[in-house]
Design brief:
The structure holds two protein chains of two kinds. Chain A contains seven helices and four strands. By secondary structure, chain A is α+β, with helices and mostly antiparallel strands. In chain A, α6 packs across α7. In chain B, β5 and β6 (265-270) form a beta hairpin. Classes of the chains: A alpha+beta, B alpha/beta.
């Protein structure tokens, strides 16, 4: 599966001084480093134990904050900004174009497990809309042609680091 | 871009971009030496020589209104905390910038993090705080790393840590707390809950956070841009800062232009500049990007009011200037839409945002935002009944008056202005044809 080893997860927790105040920093770091892009039950239990929190508290946090996921994600999760500054400057086309290219509805992984897309509120790139964000990287000023190009590039492994 | 001289003993100029000028000159934003070369830490060094009462007086004089959106005078807030009982006080910077149409804090955090840090250190000095926190939104992960580097560099140079600047007992550190995609955490009490490792739902207020804040201790919460303004005030003096703006709100303001405007982007303007200049001059907006006339402007974020461009010919971009038009500066977002955009379509998107981001703690907001969305959608499909208009207005009133926190209380702002300035577009959504009943009756 290529998931993080126990030692790697522990290293991330230690890098944040096992500080319960920084639980979100830790969970995001673990999620982004993991192959499947989510926090599984085992990891949640580990974090709860190390921070002396109840498992229920950790699960409450996982379910409350939108960035944190409790289900496996596709290799590349494309986040489309759907707030008004982007949506009304040609942003509305992004979901349609992605559905055409990927042939899956929002929030559903492609059969090869490579792609998934969904809308999220403002990511603070309103002067570059329409935008797609993958992990922490923003692709801005998109046109239909550029979206096709982006998917091709991702398929061809041009953005391995994402 | 504004121009202005930097360095030396020159007085600041009215058109000087005091917040952004360093970002244009520094090669490495986290470098303390370079920061100091461009007058960095000059405000702090002055502050530690000043009497605490004098610092508060300068802040009052500067009349900086909170840049997060609430526009509360910073001087008053700091005085409140100064007078609060208790030895342990916390300093918190709200960097959870999630207000759609806003991307100003991001620029400061990324390109001039030390100015924000300096503002937070001055607060730490004034309130004898031991711990400061900066709560940064989860979408800004990359910037969190830059900011951490700036914190590390500041500590190495002796501006953070133990006995700062050789002052015995001035021990102060700043910790970055990441958000994780919850708009409501921009609400200060929700943000404090989130720092405490809880879910970020707002608290019932009062008590004021300056009395009962983080871990129930007196706490100062200010926005990134507010903190970045503090060193400027102490360096240049309260009056000089106030003169950059107007009598009713001193300083410059970062504005974020987006939507159907030619030069989308971040700008720093003097409060008091004509709105027309922001929209149409080549230096700023440059007019419509679509060739169509501009129709309405959404100010200050999704919870801000909307103005019709036709009414804003003489409008001045300042706190009182916008209040005169029942508008508000808010976060500094200026989202401009052309005449092809139907106001109801626009508001459906705004309502969907709030229905999504309502934290669910209180019923008026949790259900009310969904009801508002459903009602507005009826107008876009021409299936609204004539009485739906009244129902919408009542719903807006209920959500505003009954919600527990600022999120719910301000949801109705854009809808109310939409109804006021473009009633005909709502009326057009009312079903007039005598239609056949589908699927039978009751």
């Amino acid at each position: 599966m290529g998931s993080l080893s126990l030692a790697e997860k522990e290293a991330i927790i230690l890098a944040h001084d096992t500080d319960p105040q920084r639980i979100l920093n830790m969970l995001i770091a673990i999620q982004y480093a993991s192959e499947e892009g989510y926090i599984d039950e085992e990891t949640a239990k580990l974090v709860a134990e190390r921070l002396h929190l109840s498992q229920a508290r950790v699960y409450e946090i996982l379910s409350f904050y939108a960035i944190l996921k409790t289900e496996p994600q596709a290799r590349y999760v494309l986040k489309i900004c759907n707030s008004t500054p982007c949506l009304f400057t040609r942003g509305a086309m992004l979901a349609e174009v992605l559905e055409t290219i990927l042939e899956v509805p929002a929030d559903q992984a492609t059969p090869d497990g490579l792609f998934m897309y969904h809308s999220i509120p403002c990511i603070g790139a309103c002067d570059q809309g329409p935008v797609i964000k993958i992990k922490d990287t923003v692709f801005g000023d998109l046109t239909e042609a550029k979206v096709y190009q982006l998917i091709d590039d991702l398929r061809n492994g041009c953005y391995q680091e994402l | 871009m504004l121009s202005g001289a930097i360095g030396g003993k020159k007085m600041i100029q009215r058109n000087q971009p005091v917040l952004l000028e360093r970002t244009m000159k520094m090669k490495q934003a986290t470098n303390v030496e370079e920061y100091q070369h461009y007058q960095g830490f000059a405000g702090l060094l002055k502050a530690i020589e000043m009497d605490k009462e004098t610092i508060l007086a300068e802040l009052d004089l500067a009349h900086l209104r909170g840049r997060g959106g609430a526009a509360f005078p910073l001087g008053k807030k700091w005085r409140h905390l100064y007078g609060a009982k208790g030895d342990t006080k916390y300093i918190v910077c709200n960097a959870d910038e999630g207000e759609p149409g806003t991307f100003k804090d991001k620029a400061l955090l990324e390109h001039d993090p030390l100015s924000v840090i300096e503002g937070m250190i001055i607060a730490g000095f004034l309130f004898s705080a031991k711990a400061g926190y900066i709560y940064m939104r989860g979408e800004y992960l990359r910037i969190q790393k830059i900011f951490q580097e700036a914190l590390d560099n500041a500590e190495k140079a002796g501006f953070l840590g133990e006995n700062i600047l050789g002052i015995e007992g001035f021990n102060y550190k700043i910790t970055i707390i990441s958000g994780a995609g919850a708009y409501v955490c921009g609400e200060n009490s929700a943000l404090l809950n989130s720092i405490e490792g809880k879910t970020g739902r707002p608290r019932v207020k009062p008590p004021h956070l300056a009395d009962v804040g983080l871990y129930l201790k007196p706490t100062l919460v200010n926005n990134v841009e507010s903190f970045a303004g503090i060193p400027v005030i102490l360096r240049e003096g309260g009056q000089a800062y106030r003169d950059l703006g107007t009598e009713d709100g001193g300083g410059t303001k970062l504005i974020c232009l987006s939507g159907h405007i030619k030069n989308r982007g971040l700008y720093e303007v003097n409060l008091g500049i004509p709105l027309k200049e922001i929209l149409y001059s080549e230096e700023y907006g440059g007019g419509s990007s679509t060739g169509r006339p501009l129709k309405f402007i959404h100010f200050g974020g999704q919870s801000g009011p909307i103005g019709a461009v036709r009414n804003l010919e003489e409008c001045i971009y300042s706190y009182e200037g916008l209040w005169d038009h029942d508008l508000a500066i808010g976060s500094g977002a200026i989202v401009v839409m052309d005449d092809q955009v139907n106001i109801v379509d626009y508001l459906v998107s705004v309502a969907a945002f709030f229905a999504h981001e309502s934290c669910g703690k209180c019923t008026p907001c949790r259900l009310g935002t969904t009801r508002i969305l459903e009602l507005l959608e009826k107008f876009t499909t021409r299936s609204a009944a004539p009485e739906d208009l009244e129902r919408l207005e009542k719903m807006l009133m209920h959500v505003t008056n009954l919600s527990a926190c600022g999120l719910g209380q301000s949801v109705a702002n854009p809808m109310k202005s939409g109804l006021r300035y473009f009633p005909e577009e709502f009326e057009a959504g009312i079903q007039t044809a005598v239609g056949s009943v589908k699927g039978g009756g009751w």
